[in-house]
Design goal:
The chain contains eight helices and 20 strands. With about 425 residues, it is of the alpha/beta class. It has a domain of about 270 residues. The strands form two sheets. Strands 1, 4, 5, 7, 9, 11, 13, 15, 17 and 19 form a ten-stranded mixed sheet that branches. A ten-stranded mixed sheet has the order 3-2-6-8-10-12-14-16-18-20, covered by helices on one side. The radius of gyration is 21 Å and the shape is globular.
């Protein structure tokens, strides 16, 4: 029996003493049983077949037990620009807030939100797909996250309120043992309200932790959520995220993910366009070198008519690194008038690097406009020659071209100052040809 299974059976984990309502206890109990039956994703799970080999050592990892004593603020990189309020999370739990929340905005520690049976939380938590009755291990990380539910945040923005920008700064305390940290972020953004979330993962210490984060958001009619995730973890760390967005009529969700570090990174992004006129805009850039592994799985389900979705991802890989990108769009019956586009382009800077990309498009409705494209190749040698003819050496020419290639993602951000800072950070870690 693995260490994780032992922890779940014995109750030896950070959420065991919570005073939970009956529905939350049942939620965790059912998820724990699923994880005990199926465990982590396996090679036979189609959506994990390229990634599971990098995760085998998780079988002997221990659950985080919530014994932290302080926030290691120095473990994070410098603050990103922009006003707003900053939420510090240590090992997945809120340990401090800097700044004043806008009037009416509710920010609660997940433990407190569960124990007080906060309005709206149950409906959001119970919508996580793939857990009830699942007979596979593909949702193993989500099952474990739910089984240990207790750490994280609940964010509620009332109707019509512009909640501004919220910085979520993720940090991990230094310990000798390798731990798996689970955290849940739930957002309820009511009609006509808006919020921007900027997540930052970037511990400076050489930690071997694994962080497993599930983000669930419910966007009601006309709500807006902008979501930026900047990940620059050390090469010994793993990050697993799942983001589930439910969108009602005329809501707008924009995601920007930037992967600049980490040993094994996995992102699952899923947006369900449930109401007419809903929009989902998913963007990402991943830069890999050494033996790093980054896996992005993005899916948009057009369920209501006149929805719009755009997926735009760029990747650069060198050394013996590996990237996986799977993008899917499904236009369901009745979702007439939908518009969808998918674009994934990649540059290989090494003969040993590998990028697997797979666009998927399913259409079961009428009057749909859809396009998709995926490319994997090397730098344009004519462009390299042109820049060298203007006085640059070969390395400078290649750096300029690869930076411009990824900068096309950060340029899509609505904040020019934030876009400039992220572009510079991409340039600082840009992989080199070998």
């Amino acid at each position: 029996m693995s260490e994780l299974h032992t922890d779940l059976q014995s109750g030896n984990w950070s959420g065991k003493d919570l005073n939970l309502p009956g529905w939350a206890k049942n939620l965790r109990k059912n998820a724990a049983e699923q994880f005990r039956m199926h465990g982590f994703p396996k090679r036979t799970d189609e959506t994990w077949k390229y990634t599971v080999s990098s995760l085998q050592d998780l079988q002997d990892i221990r659950l985080d037990r919530g014994t932290d004593t302080g926030y290691p603020g120095q473990s994070l990189a410098h603050d990103l620009p922009g006003s707003g309020y900053r939420v510090n999370l240590l090992n997945g739990r809120m340990v401090g807030v800097k700044g004043t929340l806008p009037s009416g905005v509710k920010l609660l520690d997940m433990k407190d939100a569960l124990e007080s049976e906060t309005d709206g939380l149950q409906s959001v938590l119970e919508t996580l797909s793939g857990l009830q009755g699942s007979r596979t291990s593909s949702h193993g990380f989500s099952a474990l996250n739910t089984a240990t539910l207790g750490a994280g945040l609940y964010i509620h923005v009332p109707p019509g309120v512009d909640a501004g920008r919220m910085h979520l700064n993720w940090a991990v305390s230094q310990e000798e043992t390798t731990r798996l940290i689970n955290s849940r972020i739930c957002l309820l953004i009511e009609a006509g309200a808006s919020l921007e979330i900027v997540e930052r993962f970037g511990n400076l210490q050489n930690s071997t932790h694994t962080t497993n984060v599930v983000v669930q958001a419910e966007l009601q009619n006309g709500a807006t959520l902008n979501h930026v995730r900047l990940q620059a973890e050390p090469d010994s760390a793993c990050l697993i995220t799942r983001t589930e967005i439910s969108q009602l009529s005329n809501s707008d969700y924009s995601y920007f993910g930037f992967d600049l570090g980490g040993r094994v990174i996995r992102h699952d992004l899923h947006s369900s366009l449930l109401g007419p006129g809903a929009k989902a805009n998913l963007n990402g850039a991943y830069l890999l070198d050494g033996n790093r592994h980054v896996d992005n799985h993005a899916r948009v389900d057009h369920i209501a008519p006149d929805g719009q979705s755009d997926q735009y991802f760029r990747g650069v890989a060198s050394g013996s690194s590996k990237a996986v990108f799977n993008t899917a769009v499904c236009v369901h019956p009745g979702a007439d008038g939908s518009q969808a586009s998918q674009s994934n382009a990649n540059i290989l800077l090494s003969k040993r690097a590998e990028i697997d990309t797979k666009p998927e498009l399913e259409i079961y409705a009428d009057e749909v406009i859809a396009s998709h494209g995926a490319t994997v190749g090397q730098l344009d040698e004519q462009a390299v020659f042109y820049l060298r003819s203007r006085g640059l050496n070969e390395q400078q020419a290649r750096e300029i071209l690869t930076t411009a290639f990824c900068k096309s993602v950060s340029d899509r951000l609505g904040d020019p100052e934030l876009a400039t800072v992220i572009s510079q950070r991409m340039m600082d870690v840009m992989p080199q040809a070998d």
